[in-house]
């Protein structure tokens, strides 16, 4: 679905330049010249009270005087005038505005006030969209639109470029024009007063000219919208991103180990990985990836074949490939035999394929053609080093002929200067990505391999790991709500462990001792050896104040340790409130491993989960992994596998591994806990002792957000990814008495989804999908089973047959990014048609639309689907039979529900 009114900006029929000028090199003059010289086919108007015409374009005093409708206004006037200009645009019916003017919040406090005035002016007009202010402008080469003050326009291409840096935009443009790299769109977003990066990703996802996105970003303000847009785009097309400001410090001092370790950049890293975005750490890599994305398909795997006319560059390429975890393709016997026929006897007889320094152009093309045909090869890199007998231009021409006949990516590294320049030009003109060194080529190739791997993760169907809670989570929340309101902002170890235990996360029992005598009695009751830890709401890191004593084996050592702990704590923190010590039994686990697990609230992406090597050295070694909840079994396992300590967890040099399934379950339970409690801003379990048998929290601390405690927020609004919406689940009874569970679909439903589709007749499938297919695939299933619950939902009907769970129907809603309109489709298994299942699913989906605030629902079906048409008519849908072919469109305008409980249920 189109993003509201962005077509007015990126595909306008008419453009007005407000602040157009005759003064050479002014912004207003440059923008107008770019529109005229760029070949924009629509109407162009100038607005400036000083002129009657500018560069042959009719000029008006005010935008409201333009006699024809205007789609896009490009504002080039001083900042102080922009609020009034935007108001005039709104009154004139203009709904697309690009503000190039600077001098807003990036400049001063006064500028920030001006920006607020612009926002207020725009809000008066429904649907008015703004790019900027303080931006270079926008370009849409396929529409011959250059609404910017850049000096040149890029070629038409397939890559959308989005940047928060105007200066980088100009550098990329210069490079792209030189390298003949094209773009579908080129956007400088500026201050993002209205249109943000998420809006652009959503818009470009619907554009058939855009096959990938290159993103330069400095910060994100709306993490949830960004994650939804990026995940949706990356399921089908790659996003390559450079995030600036990697080493920015957190605004607040961390109150826990987790907070201290999970820095700002590491959270962005986790978010991008979860969204399927490939992150690069060098601006040069942005250029290299842009070149590859613009000219080649994404490789299907990491297996690369290298063809070279010199051994050294071949070794360089191999080293670079293996260093980045690529795979040197293993050539088949058939490929080797064919190469033997075409190459000199002295060729390398393996990969890299060294065609020898005297190789004529035909030898390059023969080797490339043979290697590309090998099923074990996912891509080919051709490296040319100019030698006395080398013909770089002829070799380029020969390689181009082969590349045109292959569906696999072929990239080139033509090394050298003047001798190879003509060959590079030919390769660029032919759309073959060409680099100055093998390492650059490898980096670009592997970034796209990373995207392919990330995409597999997005599409992966998880193994179902049922975690059943014996406790009522809603009742549990109300109980702890009282504890939160009456307690401290930092919960004690005892209170923290009580909450963990309620979520069935094993903990060691802890008791509070306010005197040495109490400590001795507690130790006797718990059993020796014991550990004593300072008990104070003001002391976060106990070891920093000497507040921990371990392996105390008798009463005397406990009493002495009590006095030592209190004495040291008072020396280090004389103003801290010290209530005594906590006493707990020491677990002896020679094969155990200590981890730290926890959660931290990030200001952009909400709650973030962390796992890492734990104990007192956790912050020193920083062996950690971050992930956004909700956590699946696969994501939890991926976190653990990314740790340097992973081999130790699996088992190393004769030592047994830990209980990984139990550890993964604990991580998933922790995910449930922090999802249920927006009041928690930091949580530490350090250490979590993991043994071959179990995983047990030895220490815990929870930090609360007092404002969230006093003023409850909407469910899940503290998460960047909407968890599974349990609240939509309900029981229903069909006309024949069959009981069914209506619930949102899950990724692990894939096998049952395949079975549902298989149970449908060809006629039913054609009525639902409106095209014929022979069988479902994994890619199809993941598209329908893996969804973003913020903007799409599929309600399935599940029943039991012969003791087995089955899906017998599914109703699907896909909303636009603004939740203004939703498309609806339904599929019911043939044996279950005609007994009210379709009606039950439809009514539930319409109810969800009301909760989402959707204004209209539209469904498209075949004219011969009389049963569905009748069902929609009964529910007040307008039926439109005027469409081409056999399509019927049903549409209904909804009354938006205003109940706060409904509005909160979507987590937005």
UniProtKB/TrEMBL annotation:
Its EC number is 6.2.1.5. The keyword DNA damage does not apply. Residues 740-895 form the N-acetyltransferase domain. It is an enzyme of class 6 (ligase). SMART domains: CoA_binding (SM00881). Residues 497-533 form the ATP-grasp domain. Keywords: ATP-binding, Ligase, Nucleotide-binding. It comes from the Bacteria. Signal peptide: none annotated. InterPro entries: AcCoA-synth-alpha, Acyl-CoA_Synth/Transferase, Acyl_CoA_acyltransferase, ATP-grasp, ATP_grasp_subdomain_1, CoA-bd, GNAT_dom, Ligase_CoA_dom. One of its GO terms (molecular function) is metal ion binding. It holds the Pfam family Acetyltransf_1. NCBIfam families: AcCoA-syn-alpha. In the N-terminal section; belongs to the acetate CoA ligase alpha subunit family. This is Succinyl-CoA ligase [ADP-forming] subunit alpha. The lineage of its organism: Bacteria, Pseudomonadati, Planctomycetota, Planctomycetia, Pirellulales. The gene is sucD_1.
